[in-house]
Amino acid sequence: MENLWIATELFYPEETSTSFILTKIANKLSEKYDVKVVCGDPVYDKQKDNKNFTLNPNVVIHRIKGFGGNKNSLLSRSFRFIFLSISIFFYLWKKVRQGEKVFIVTNPAPLILLISILKKFKKIELIILVHDVFPENTIPAGIIKSEKSFSYKILRNIFDKAYSNADKLICLGRDMKLVILNKIQKYNTGSKVEIIENWGDVESIYPISKQEAFNNDSPIQDQIIFQYAGNIGRVQGLLELLEVIKQVKNEKLAFYFVGEGAVKQRMLEYVKDNQLQNVYFDGAYSRAEQLSILNKSDIAFVSLAPKMFGLGVPSKTYNILAAGKPILYIGEKNSEIDLLIKEENIGYSFQHFEHQKLVDFFNSFDEQSILDLNLRKEKARCVAEEKFSENSILNKFYNTI
Fold first, then answer.
1. What is the maximum span of the chain, computed from C-alpha positions, in angstroms?
2. Among 12, 81, 263, 356, which residue's beta carbon has the most beta carbons within 10 A?
């Protein structure tokens, strides 16, 4: 069989979304390729016993030894990205033959530049799975302060050219496709840009009652629970969400944040300083625990910071739907999740500046709202099964690569 090389920072046995997705894709593509993966050592979320996350023994892995780092430190992550990218590049330079396929994800970002150089000299077929759009994503994250800065303009030009060198770019949504097409158009590229969404684990994640999920051991299980579960990071806009929650007077509601990340400590301090009695926190959870975690909610938050249009599509969305939970989305109008919610009637969507509308929504949530919510719960599960199952999405990758 033909070789397919996969280059990535994260891979099995880590359970982060990028690792999980690429491992599943590698398993599927091993049905028609000799799949060879080059990646970093596991340093973040180590796999626990999860029968639904295994690696096909035919997939060969080469791990880059060395720099670990703190995932919440920008400096540490930057060093790790640079070290890994250079190490992966030199390994592939020695191993990849002309005409072979190389499949990378946009993380670490420096690897995009180096693999585009590899393509030029080795004449490989380059496929990029776009999970993040660099350097555009540095603006909402606050890493680069302005699009007008000299450093941003230089990075933008360099990376636009690198993205345009791909034979195929796979995007996660319609908004991201627009951003990528705009990014590469000035180079008159022949790159194909396609959409393949993420998927939900509809076999292992399904609706159960809150009482069962909490094991009848929580003071908030009888309230309407709005839950955020996942990385509590810089681009989710969660501190701004707390400013909205501060104005909510509806005692039927509870707000529940589950996970760890760069801004969690600031959120804890905000809740304490403002004496918010309706906000609760829990720690990190494994992928195997998602069934109970997601079912501890009535409505799940999916949020992206301002200026994130087309720069990411939260993969958590599809497991939320698998659990039969409607989505409360806070983000840009006409982004992929906004469009999905409105087309399928599976939740509620607000823009960042609609603070008062969001406060009014929470404060007016009553018995009629609960009846409407139950209809959206049923629809959410149906959409996950019909459009975003693992099998249907992996078949798209199989047919595209």
1. 65
2. 12
Q: How many residues does the chain have?
A: 401
Ordered strands of the 224-229 beta sheet: 279-282, 253-258, 224-229, 299-303, 327-330, 347-350
Secondary structure class of 339 (helix, strand, coil) = helix
Sign for the CA dihedral angle at 137, 142, 146, 149 comes to negative
Contacts (Cβ under 8 Å, ≥6 apart) of 204: 52, 290, 291
Residues 6+ apart with CB under 8 A from 231: 259, 260, 261
| Enclosing H/E stretch for 268 | helix 264-273
SS3 category, 22: helix
SS3 37: strand
Topology classification of domain 210-387: Rossmann fold (3.40.50)
User: Using CA of residue 279, residue 384, residue 290, residue 56, what is the dihedral sign?
Assistant: negative
Domain spans in the chain, listed from the N-terminal domain onward? 3-199+389-400, 210-387
Q: Phi first, then psi: what are they for 237, rounded to 5°? A: 70, 30
Report how far apart the first and last C-alpha atoms of the chain are (Å, whole number). 14
The pLDDT assigned to 72 comes to: 56
- SS3 state at 19: helix
Q: For the chain of 401 residues, list the mean pLDDT of each consecutive stretch of 10.
A: 93 88 96 95 64 89 77 67 90 95 92 94 95 90 86 94 95 96 88 95 93 86 93 84 94 95 94 94 90 95 89 92 96 95 96 93 89 91 95 96 94
Distance of CA 374 to the CA centre of its chain: 26
The residues with which 301 forms a beta bridge, in sequence order, are 328
Q: Which two tokens stand for residue 397?
A: 């990758």
Q: What's the one-letter identity of residue 238?
A: L
Nearest by Cα to 180 from 378, 58, 313: 313
The alpha-carbon radius of gyration of the chain (Å, integer) is 21
The residues pairing with 350 across neighbouring beta strands, listed in sequence order, are: 330
13 cis-preceded (ω within 30 degrees of 0): yes
Extract the tokens encoding 150.
């000299």
Cβ pair 131, 312 in contact under 8 A:
yes
Domains 3-199+389-400 and 210-387 share a fold: yes
Topology, domain 3-199+389-400: Rossmann fold (3.40.50)
Alpha-carbon separation of residue 218 from 198, 210, 257, 284, 366 (angstroms): 32, 10, 15, 18, 22
Distance CA 305, CA 303 (A): 7
